[in-house]
Predict the 3D structure of the following.
Amino acid sequence: MNIETQDFYTQAILSMSALVGLMSFLMLGQGRLPRLILVFAMQGMLLTLTAILAGYELNSPHLYISALLTFALKVVFIPSMLQKQVFAMNIHRDVEALKNNTAVMLSGASLMVFSYYVLQPIIHTSSMIMLNALVVSLSVVLLGLLLMISHRQAVAHVVGFMSIENGLFFAAMVATDGMPMVVELGVAFDVLVAAVLFGIFFFHIRTSIDSLDVDMMNKLHEVER
Amino acid sequence: MNWAIAIFQTVLFVALAPLLASFLKFCKCRLQNRRAPSFLQPYRDLLKLTRKQPVISQDASWLFCVAPYIIFTMMILAATVIPLIAVDMPTSESADVIVLVGFFAFARFFLALAGLDIGTAFGGMGSSREMTISSLAEPAMLMAVFTITMTASNTDLSGAIHHILNEGATLHPSFVFALFALILVAVAETGRIPVDNPTTHLELTMIHEAMILEYSGRHLALIEWASQLKLMLYGVLIANLFFPWGIAQSFTIGALSFALVALVLKLIVLSVFLALAETVVAKMRLFRVQEYLGFAYLLGLLGMLSHIILESTR
């Protein structure tokens, strides 16, 4: 199963999966929120392209609809909403000092190896494309978790959460020919609602602790110390 | 015949290097709304410097005078290894990519020694910074190049280019990572903007300039030429390794001249991108360089991983 012997669709999907993984790594190392949101939008764009490609190759027109949904939600709506909030709260110039960035990056790389190791047993039962898509999407999920752990800004946590969803969506699209339309619509709607709710939470966190840095939440005690 | 073409190619490499530097300067000047100096300006500078008498400090040892010649020779030897317009050169078959990295390391070693030799504060500072950066950049570069050579199962550059050409249009996910890693490393190694500013003499930020501060006359000319050659080496390495289409596989006049035109086009595109990046990006603090190169290493590692995970036979 060498890559030269695969057809063009497989090669393109593999390249897409590599780029989606790369975007997750770029997000992990990003200290500035506007750029973090931009990279998130780029990951959404890659997912849209993958959906179009898969829809064309697998002859399943409903993937076009999910491509359209992905584009509308993850490339246009959510990033622009987050961007607007970041600008409104005047934190777009803040550079978050990431603690031990190199260690976080290397642990990200080891998470990728780990997800390959975890999925090793299904090699013999699956096609190349399915295995690799699963590996990449599992590592995108894990990298999203790592992003949420390593960043302290609440906006970065939301981006991490959304990129976890990106990883799941990628797996669903490539490995299983797309989820049923009902499920996909439901998930898209959930993501939309989540994004709006997060927006409300931002303002609440900000009014109660005067910052979006979640480390400051330690200040919230019932009793004054 | 083969040897004649190999020598011609190396001469072309050495002769075109200042032109690439001046084209890069031209792009940057246009982007910053300035008038660019003539394309021949680096040649004139080199000529002017060779005519001047070098001034050597009385504390300098023989090492200080020998270092420019060693550095320049190493760059020429490195130029023989990288295929410029044709593959299957007798010179490039005698040395592979590990030797190429070795040539760079050798030249850097002598440059750092020369910086230390005079005993000025700036020289020592520049040498220590250069060694710090290169110790981080070298593994990243090896990782990126190994990704390609593993695909070709051959550490010889000609062999790798042959393999990519013969395979036709195949999308390699790992090459994307390796390309980005190699670009980041090339920017760091040639002392371009996010890492070092080649046009500044602002004392606290300089790296390359700090080491060569005491050089003058023909010694300075050789070092300047060597650093222009290094830029060209990295540019050609990136252009020909990742986009080898157009390179001559037979030694006919037609194929060679077509390869030259293709190479010039590739280098133009590459230097426009580099100039754009240098205009957009601000210089980094020195202590953030390790993050930058750590990221380059990570990309190289990911390239290697995705080669093993996504592409290899099992």
